[in-house]
Design goal:
By secondary structure, the chain is mostly helical. Helices cover 72% and strands 0% of the residues. The chain has 23 helices and no strands. It has helices spanning 6-19, 21-30, 37-50, 59-73, 77-83, 95-104, 110-133, 142-154, 163-182, 186-192, 194-197, 202-214, 218-230, 236-246, 252-259, 261-271, 276-299, 301-304, 308-326, 336-355, 358-383, 389-393, 408-412. Helix 1 packs across helix 2, helix 8 (142-154) runs antiparallel to helix 20 (336-355) and helix 14 packs antiparallel against helix 15 (252-259). The termini are far apart.
């Protein structure tokens, strides 16, 4: 069999993508050890963004409204600069409005906007997945494959629906991987860029700063993690007052809206109509991850204590999980539990690999398979609302001429 050069492999990948983007995705999964494999996933995500199904009332519908407003009003950078980070402005992140304004200068097609959002999201998403894969060698065992699937589904590519927060999550994660796993100081700067994608990431950046100051106080962080897991009751008005006292004025309107009683009651009422599995598919996974982290703290020290990068990552994720637990009752801040789960899953993936125990992997998979299966099924069901049939059967030559309104969920109902 002829061994392809990098240039030839990349050319073949582009050909497959233009013929059938799903084929590029499948090729990337099949040849996951190749350097170009991550790009196949990235390309598919960009195409998925172009064919994304926008549901009424979702964040993506508001992004498109902003886009159409920018397009009709001929908003310029100077106009946008006047309202960015200004008191009372709705624009306190630079990423989404800047990208929206730039795309609006060239086209009025919202599909292009979603594709550009997917371009940014897909880059960090694909890099984070392969960051973990590239830390391993040989064939991945079944539990490692399961964990990488959990990692991919925690913040999946259809989360471009809320592109600001979830892109910021992957940017922060990517920078953190550089810092903790490769000991590159530039990772701190990359992680800090997440604040410009979503303002709330000042919260994890501050946690990263706390870790940077105090270092690997693993036992202290572990105690904090366990206590916060058991007792996470907080006085939200007190937290709101503290945040208002120590944050710039430009953030105050958002802080008040996210911690207001009316907003919290509204979120609570909306969750009352959820089916049990929509609530518990996350909670059970988080509980599973916490149990495994506690177990590894006592039993797995021969792995995480002897490897500096594992020690650093473990220490930080315990600290991060602790803060996420404490503030999880604030609805929007509760999303950081999912970010914490990304760190936990990444650590468990590397732990299982370094532990190199096939018996442990099989036992864990059998014991926790019900929780993982529930998580997989519900995660995919949520994605069906935004994954269009044309995302799976068309290509970049055909899709622009079709009106993409058929979501996978419409075919199932």
């Amino acid at each position: 069999m002829k061994i392809l050069t990098t240039k030839e492999a990349n050319t073949n990948l582009w050909v497959i993508f233009f013929l059938w983007p799903v084929g590029a995705l499948i090729t990337s999964i099949k040849y996951y050890r190749q350097n170009w494999a991550k790009n196949g996933l990235w390309l598919f995500i960009v195409f998925f963004g172009f064919t994304f199904i926008v549901q009424e009332g979702q964040d993506s519908s508001r992004y498109i409204e902003h886009f159409l407003t920018f397009r009709s009003s001929n908003t310029t950078f100077s106009t946008l600069a006047d309202v960015l980070y200004s008191e009372g402005s709705s624009y306190i992140d630079i990423f989404q409005p800047l990208v929206t304004m730039l795309v609006a200068q060239f086209t009025g097609d919202p599909r292009i906007l979603m594709a550009v959002f997917a371009l940014f999201f897909g880059f960090f998403y694909s890099r984070n997945i392969w960051y973990l894969i590239d830390k391993t060698e040989g064939k991945l065992n079944i539990f490692l494959v399961t964990l990488i699937m959990v990692f991919a589904l925690l913040v999946p590519f259809w989360f471009i629906n809320g592109v600001r927060f979830w892109t910021a999550a992957h940017v922060f994660l990517y920078g953190s991987f550089l810092f903790f796993l490769d000991n590159k100081t530039k990772g701190l700067w990359v992680a800090s860029l997440s604040v410009f994608v979503h303002f709330s990431f000042i919260f994890p950046v501050l946690i990263l700063f706390i870790y940077r100051v105090f270092g690997n106080k693993t036992l202290f962080y572990f105690i904090f993690f366990v206590i916060s897991s058991l007792f996470s009751e907080i006085d939200i008005p007190v937290v709101r007052d503290i945040l208002l006292a120590y944050t710039p004025d430009i953030f105050h309107e958002r802080i008040i809206s996210y911690t207001g009683e009316e907003y919290i009651e509204l979120i609570g009422e909306s969750q009352a109509y959820y089916n049990w599995y929509v609530i518990w598919y996350e909670r059970l996974l988080y509980l599973l991850l916490k149990v495994l982290l506690i177990f590894i703290f006592f039993i797995g020290k021969e792995v995480w204590q002897k490897r500096k990068e594992m020690l650093c990552l473990f220490s930080f994720l315990l600290l991060f999980n602790g803060f996420a637990n404490v503030f999880s009752q604030i609805p929007s801040v509760g999303r950081f539990l999912r970010v914490a789960a990304l760190f936990s899953t990444a650590f468990l993936f590397l732990y299982i690999y370094y532990n190199n125990s096939e018996l442990l992997s099989k036992r864990l998979l059998i014991f926790f398979s019900p929780v993982l299966l529930l998580f997989f099924i519900v995660s995919m069901r949520i994605g069906f609302d935004n994954i269009g049939i044309y995302s799976l059967i068309t290509n970049p030559f055909i899709a622009p001429f079709l009106t993409n309104e058929i979501a996978l969920i419409d075919l199932i109902k």
